[in-house]
Amino acid sequence: MEETVQIYEKLPIINFSLLHHDSVIKQIHEACRNFGFFHVINHGIPESVIEGALNVNSNFFDLPMAMKEELLSDDVQKPVRFGRAQVGCHENGVLSRDFLKLYAHPIDHFLNLWPSNPPNYREKMGIYATEVRKLGIELFGAIMESLNLSPTHLKQNFEHGEQIIGINSYPRCLESNIKTGVAAHTDHSIITILLQSSPGLHIVDRSDSTWKSVCRIEGSFEIIVGDHLEVISNGLYKSVLHRAIPSSNNGSRFSIANLHSLGMDEIVEPAAKLVDEERPKRYKGSSLRDFIEHLSSKDKIPFIHTIKIQTISDS
Ligand SMILES: O=C(O)CCC(=O)C(=O)O
Ligand SMILES: [Fe+2]
What we know:
It comes from Fraxinus pennsylvanica. This protein is α+β, with helices and mostly antiparallel strands. The protein has helices at about 20-35, 45-60, 65-70, 105-110, 120-145, 155-160, 225-230, 290-295, 305; strands spanning about 5, 15, 35-40, 80-90, 95-105, 165-170, 180, 180-185, 190-195, 200-205, 210-215, 220-225, 240-245, 255-260. α1 (about 20-35) crosses α5 and α2 (about 45-60) crosses α5. 2-oxoglutaric acid binds near residues 182, 194, 200 and 257.
């Protein structure tokens, strides 16, 4: 039986075309602080680019297994890999999905490693990745402003940082005892820019600690606060616990998650301006590579817990 999950009403919606208005910076602050999440609309990425990305990924996952197998790998360090993740969780039993992971910046380094089938895969996903990256850079500046930091804080580092794209495929039909989905987690990124082909994303409502389902707003992206933004903000913003449980009524589902981080070996620390006597440093420095190594170690403790510095009050 499917668990009933309420729709998350009143999730913040940010109008990207007004991004640097004081009122929007304030909305971003409230959204990151209270929800760890917001929708973004009027972002200027053409519908055709978004449709193109969804189509080529749908075509990729439809290929016979033999054609996808050449990218099959469970080595989390690989810049391009295909796989099937089946993770057991106590709430939902085994959750399964197929995924494709693509490193995407600098794009010229990686494009020729991306799938060559369907033949327009690289072209369509290349355009999508480049457009989403521009959006990410603008949003990052506004988020820094929302923390009362300069909009250029870490700008260059972010511009040179990593972009890892996770494409998730949740097919409609699986064996009866296996559901499709992704178990609860936070993202290691600074921000994740998520595109969902149909609803299925759930986030935790912090007011009552229950799971709520995120609506799909036509043409919007979903912005997820990741662990490294939690670190930069010295805990003012918290990464949001989320999962994906597509409803079996909606047919097959895809999501494309663009995870934006600083450079692989760059140490991310709380911004000096957000550390003082009242609010001492709450996180140790860590890099994206530290996260990936943590993932390889199969340690079950969430990464963010491994970098927290214990303080007396943890509000
Ligand atoms: O499919 C979704 O909506 C979420 C996917 C996700 O959380 C991820 O790829 O990190
Ligand atoms: Fe995620």
